[in-house]
Amino acid sequence: MNWLDICALEEINALGSRVIRGPKGDIAIFRTSDDEVFALDDRCPHKGGPLSQGLIYGKRVACPLHNWQIDLESGEAQAPDIGCAHHHQARVENGRVMLALRDAV
Predict the structure, then answer these.
(1) In what order do the strands lie in the sheet with 96-101?
(2) 18 CB neighbour count, 10 Å cutoff
(3) 3-37 confidence digits (pLDDT tens)
(4) SS (H, E, C) the chain
(5) CA of 80: how far to CAs of 1, 19, 43, 47, 77, in Å?
């Protein structure tokens, strides 16, 4: 597994996100209010809405198109909705946001 150094944690606003290009499309990296980071494909499982533009609260993001609630840890849509956005491993190491991409070259 390849860990990529994305940016300093403070470069992503609390309750904000950053989008990067991944090997299979855009990936949204989210920062919670308590400085945890999570990464999901930047496509809602419902209609493909840009999750990076949604509101973050707790460990969820609300899709900006139809308000689907997506769990940041798993990518799973919350009931009654069904679906999943692909989840990527992310962590903060020495103040840097790191992203694991299994498909990275």
Answers:
(1) 2-8, 96-101, 90-93
(2) 18
(3) 999 999 999 999 999 999 988 899 999 999 999 99
(4) CEEEEEEEHHHCCCCEEEEEEECCEEEEEEECCCCCEEEEECCCCCCCCCHHHCEEECCEEECCCCCCEEECCCCEECCCCCCECCEECEEEECCEEEEEECCCC
(5) 34, 28, 19, 16, 8
Classify strands 69-71 and 25-31 as parallel, antiparallel or unpaired: unpaired
In total, the chain counts a number of residues equal to: 105
pTM for the complete prediction?
A: 0.92
Superfamily for domain range 2-101: Rieske [2Fe-2S] iron-sulphur domain (2.102.10.10)
- CB-based contact 37:30 (threshold 8 Å): yes
